[in-house]
Design goal:
Length: 923
């Protein structure tokens, strides 16, 4: 019997186990008790303090007196804890942070030195806190505490609640019941005096008593007997430390060195979880069943959570006998596993796998065809029946075996070196022939027609292969150019359509064009998550695919031409399957087997019906200036404009390993559209503009959306310079500015009018000035005309003088030729007087000064050294007379005039480059 139980224990399909190491949760290794609040948060009594986990985040509240917390119980809105020489409760403040209140200060007497609280329970609106020396009864209504003492020190090992009664065992004295605040002896039979009980549980007509070292007893009022349960001999030598009864009356027992054991209601061993099978540690200190029926295990080194209600079960081959599972099948009430170690099987009502003799080494394929199990093997092809394998084909490397359409007596198999045909005869199935003309490894192939197939080779690509009607020769084959080759690629026919998958996506084959086209919708599953292009078409009308995070199945939607996508959160790290060799088999209408590197997983893909709620558990404000601070969860908030960076943390109290929680959020007042689903449980909003906002978040566990939407309202105040008061002031200021502007405009208008009048006046003055200028110009012109006339008169006079002198000189010359007589001499003398008469010059000078005022004055000022004769020459030069014209006026020869000109130039020191006439004309 023991041997059978050991085999059963070694070959178990276990629920998922999650282990949390101290480095992950940030506290000490030992966890002594576990509890759960109404909001789903899990609490742990840890060596370092109160540890809490909400499914997304861990947090630790240090022990108030820096001692080990031994017990914890979440009751209502309080979390009670017991420590060394202290006990009390924790309650969330307005910011959602647990704050501690000690109750030991309410005691009328001091606690016994070294006393610790080992268990806390709620009982009839009171809280009972049990130490080894007594029980403290706390009444939350009036904050009163009473104490139930025992005579023997350190005598109480456990406190039990059974059938509505409170009992405890005192070593050496038996079982006591608490009535009216007193401990009263209840049962003094030997079993209660000498054996240490860790659990008492009510059954129909008896109690079950679980002891530390003596097994489990069946207790009635008249007798105590060892419970005759199937697993009794298996656990009889183990030291037990904790036990609880689950809601289905099964027992979970924690041991000191053998991990965790689960017994069904009748005592059958359901499973044992040890360190070799996924438990973090073999010493169990605490056990707790939460609201979702998960089993939490406080360990000597860490924490574990066992998802008893998970649709996933894990067969873990801890001895490594099976190896990696590549294929599986159900046939004749037996489960077959094809692995890299061979072909194994077990009856469905058994747990122990056996090797099919002769099938050692790699198994590639298992197919049930015409109720016969075919095995594709590295060494060839086998038919398997009742644990016996018979080889029917010896060509190495049978990848896969398929029926040939319209040929029930022929099978086509793909091998390392091409294609082979199996034929059914009177002697059964046997190898008929290799199909010649195609020697490429044919791991995947699908029929287009009875004689045409598509063959995928991940290192070469997809071939179209046409065979003759006898299946002995390949007529033709060619590489399909519409898709690329790809590592871990595959072919699969689903709903009469062939699909090809590689890292670039999933492609659909078109029979008419003989090409593949990418299916964008279903290809999206590979976005940044590709691990394998393996596609599997199963008997339940699903096509399976695999990504880094999910196992995906496609199904036909009767209302849509496209395939519907369904995701099951089983990450590659938990599948741990050989990439490109993933395998799934339908083993019942609801269950599927997924091969892994250490055995297999069994899972159900159907919808989760559990109800979930989402909670906002922390709000933090990170101001531009200042330090971040936590914000109240229970009331709306007003923040200054500088406090406009806000973050939200939220969670769903969901602890299933294979259920992924994702969130959607939005900030009403900023944007009304929901975000994309994300697994992040934190969202931060930076530089939020002033205004009123409502943050909303909802969750989805798998495809199950939370019942509620968690909300939080807050307001970002305007800066003082944009506040309503400031706006009023700005309005007043604007009015004043407007009035001032109006006044300014009036003044400006008046100024413009004045300027216009001034311009008009100035224009009139300018016109008057212009008229006056014209008059002056007219007078000047008259003067100029007068001067011109006088100049003409002067010129005429000068010319007359010149002509007169010429005439007189001519007469004189003629007379001088005559015989001189006194009369003639008198005439010549008169002529000489008229030629050089000073009166003529005086007249000329007067006329010249009148015509050219101040010329003599200027010349005398500039050249005071000039003589009267020099001045005469200057005047003639100013009149622009030539030397020839000047000579008669001076009554000298032309040569003498040139000499006078030379002397004058020298006297006034005139540069030779300047004409003498020009000099006096321009003076």
């Amino acid at each position: 019997m023991t041997s059978l139980l050991c085999n059963c224990a070694l070959a178990q399909e276990l629920p998922p186990i999650q282990n949390f190491e101290p480095s992950l949760y940030g506290a000490d290794n030992q966890n002594w008790q576990v509890s759960q609040g109404d909001d789903g948060i899990i609490y742990f009594a840890n060596n370092k303090g109160l540890l809490q986990y909400n499914g997304a985040q861990w947090s630790l509240r240090p022990s108030p007196n820096e001692t080990i917390l031994r017990s914890v119980a979440a009751i209502g809105d309080r979390v009670y804890t017991g420590a060394h020489m202290d006990f009390g409760f924790w309650k969330k403040d307005r910011d959602g942070i647990l704050q501690y209140t000690s109750l030991s200060s309410l005691l009328s007497h001091s606690m016994i030195e070294g006393e610790q609280i080992w268990k806390i329970i709620s009982y009839k609106n009171k809280v009972l806190l049990q130490s080894l020396n007594g029980i403290y009864v706390y009444n939350p209504k009036d904050d009163s505490i009473t104490y139930i003492a025992v005579a023997t020190k350190n005598a109480i090992f456990r406190l039990f609640e059974i059938d509505g009664n409170l009992l405890f065992q005192e070593q050496g004295k038996g079982l006591f019941i608490i009535e009216n605040g007193q401990a009263i002896s209840y049962d003094t039979r030997d079993v209660f005096q000498n054996k240490t009980f860790i659990g008492l549980y009510q059954r129909e007509s008896y109690w079950l008593g679980v002891t530390q070292k003596n097994g489990i007893f069946k207790i009635t009022s008249t007798e105590v007997t060892a419970w005759a349960y199937p697993a009794a001999s298996y656990i009889k030598d183990m030291t037990l430390y904790r036990s609880i009864e689950l809601s289905d009356q099964s027992l979970v027992i924690g041991t000191v060195a053998n991990g965790l054991i689960k017994l069904s209601k009748d005592g059958t061993l359901d499973y044992q979880v040890t360190q070799n099978k996924g438990l973090g540690n073999n010493t169990v200190l605490a056990i707790y069943e939460d609201q979702s029926k998960n089993i939490w295990v406080g360990l000597d080194n860490g924490i574990a959570c066992i998802n008893t209600m998970s649709p996933v079960r894990n067969y873990y081959d801890e001895q490594g006998r099976l190896g990696t599972t590549y294929v599986s099948a159900i046939h004749n009430n037996a489960l077959y596993l094809g692995t890299n170690q061979g072909l194994f099987y077990r009856d469905l009502d058994s747990k122990d796998f056996k090797l099919v003799p002769g099938t050692e080494e790699q198994v590639w394929d298992l197919k049930v065809i015409q109720n016969i199990l075919f095995c594709g093997h590295n060494n060839g092809t086998y038919i398997v029946e009742k644990g016996i394998a018979r080889q029917i084909a010896k060509p190495q490397g049978t990848w896969t075996i398929r029926t040939i359409p319209d040929n029930p007596n022929l099978l086509l198999q793909g091998n390392y070196d091409g294609l082979y045909v199996l034929e059914k005869s009177e002697n059964g199935w046997q190898l008929r022939n290799k199909i010649k003309g195609f020697d490429i490894s044919s791991r995947y192939f699908e029929f287009i027609s009875p004689t045409v197939i598509l063959v995928n080779n991940e290192y070469k690509g997809v071939y179209r292969v046409e065979m003759d009607s006898t299946f002995k020769q390949v007529s033709s084959y060619n590489l399909n150019p519409s898709v690329n080759k790809g590592e871990h690629s595959s072919l699969s026919k689903f709903d009469n359509t062939i699909y090809y998958a590689n890292k670039n996506g999933i492609y659909k084959y078109n029979d008419i064009t003989s090409t593949f086209s990418r299916e964008d919708k279903i290809s999206a599953i590979y976005d940044d998550k590709f691990v394998s292009g393996k596609l599997i078409n199963d008997e339940s009308n699903k096509m399976w695919a695999f990504t880094d995070e999910d196992v995906v199945y496609f199904s036909k939607d009767p209302l849509d031409t496209e395939l519907s996508i369904n995701k099951i959160y089983i990450p590659q790290r938990d599948r741990n399957a050989a990439q490109g060799f993933e395998n799934i088999t339908s083993i019942s209408s609801n269950d599927f087997l997924l091969g892994t590197s250490h055995g297999y997983l069994i899972f159900s893909p159907y919808n989760d019906k559990e109800k979930y709620s989402v909670y906002i558990n922390r709000i933090e404000n990170n101001p531009i200036e200042g330090t971040p601070h936590v914000v109240s969860l229970f009331e709306d908030s007003n923040f200054s404009f500088k406090e406009n960076n806000i973050s939200f943390n939220y969670h769903v109290a969901q602890y299933d390993k294979f259920k992924q929680t994702s969130y959607q959020y939005r900030l009403l007042g900023f944007y009304d559209e929901w975000s994309e689903w994300t697994t992040s449980n934190r969202q931060e909003f930076a530089n939020v503009s002033p205004g009123s906002y409502t943050f909303e978040v909802k969750a989805k566990v798998g495809d199950n959306v939370s019942e509620n939407v968690a909300t939080y309202n807050f307001t970002i105040d305007r800066p003082w310079y944009t506040s309503y008061l400031a706006i009023i002031l700005y309005s007043i200021l604007a009015i004043l500015v407007f009035l001032a502007f109006q006044q300014y405009n009036k003044r400006r208008y008046k100024r413009k009018q004045d300027q216009a009048l001034e311009r008009t006046k100035r224009d009139m003055d300018l016109k008057a000035l212009a008229v006056e200028k014209e008059n002056i110009e007219l007078r000047n012109q008259n003067l100029r005309d007068d001067i011109s006339a006088r100049n003409r008169e002067l010129a005429t006079s000068t010319l007359a003088m010149v002509n007169k002198s010429k005439t007189l000189k001519s007469i004189k010359e003629k007379l001088s030729k005559l015989e001189p007589t006194p009369e003639l001499k008198a005439i010549i003398k008169d002529i000489d007087k008229n030629i050089s008469t000073n009166e003529d010059w005086a007249f000329f000078e007067k006329a010249f000064n009148h015509a050219d005022k101040d010329f003599f004055k200027k010349v005398k000022e500039i050249h005071p050294e000039l003589t009267a004769n020099d001045l005469k020459l200057c005047v003639y030069l100013r009149l622009n007379l030539s030397s020839k014209e000047i000579a008669p006026l001076l009554n000298i020869s032309h040569r003498s005039v040139e000499i006078k000109r030379y002397r004058l130039r020298k006297k006034i020191n005139l540069d030779r480059s300047i004409q003498l006439n020009d000099y006096f004309i321009k003076m």
